[in-house]
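Researcher: Following up on the earlier apo prediction. This time include the ligand. It's S-adenosylmethionine, with the SMILES given after the sequence.
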Amino acid sequence: MDRIHIEKGSVQETLIIPLYGRKLCAEQFPTLYQDEYAARICQSIDYDFSKIEAKKNNAMYQFGGLEGAMREKDMIWEITDYLKDHPKAAVVNLGCGLNMTGRMADNGTCHIYNLDFPDVINSRNEIVPAGEREENIACDLNDFSWMDRIDASNGAVLYAAGVFHYFTMQQIKDMVIAMADRFPGGRLVFDAVGKFGRDVLMKGTLKNMGMRDVSGLFFVNSVSDLDGWSSKVKSVTRKSYMQGYYKLEDPNIKGIHRFLAGLCDSIAKMYIYRMEFQLAK
Ligand SMILES: C[S@@+](CC[C@H](N)C(=O)[O-])C[C@H]1O[C@@H](n2cnc3c(N)ncnc32)[C@H](O)[C@@H]1O
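Model: Understood. Below is the ligand-bound prediction.
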């Protein structure tokens, strides 16, 4: 099989950073994070990793890897928790890139849906074709017809890892309203940064994608920012992205990593948000 080519500066390229981060993290912090897929997927891609590879011993880059890996662990925690009460639920990976969260949380009875733009789904179909109880759906998440393709009769846990940053506030609000309506009793999980995090930290990443004006893009400073979006949203809660689900414990974790994790909470306001949707009346 020819290796899949990822174009520099394309939307597809945004999936490289978390993917490489998970590979790096599994190599450098093996007691904290294991990933049987990331290294193999990186090998299947025709992408010049040399620049990021050269920086892999830099504590800041290592921290970037930790971010990708902790987010993956947090999402797996939320999916597993939902599946305890809804073992046959739809597990819906919004903006999946080449992550394998669904399979890593698979309980043997759920149905996994991976959604992304057509070029990403084409790559995914080549590199990690859908398995049993798994479907890859090519779509634009802003066109809500993807919701018709999800069988949520046994519940639905929808999650977006590193995805909502690329949407406007209004697009996320519209999507949440539609999801709360379409998936009663469902759960939505996503990561978000606060306004400062968006303006300062995300700006570089978004600029690489040609997004110069970040002012309309999604951020959340506090849970109350999400209040009142839909009467069908039962509750909104959040946990720290880096330390809310698991402790940063591994012999290779340094003080600087813990310090940066603290800044993620206090300054960047990086959190994992969970919305529970009302059951149908
Ligand atoms: C930073 S990557 C994260 C990938 C993956 N969730 C992970 O954790 O590795 C963002 C992903 O969102 C996808 N994406 C962004 N906007 C989208 C849209 N409107 N519709 C579908 N996918 C979108 C991109 O193609 C990309 O794969």
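Model: Residues 243 and 269 are 12 Å apart (CA to CA).
Researcher: Noted. I'll compare it with the apo version next.
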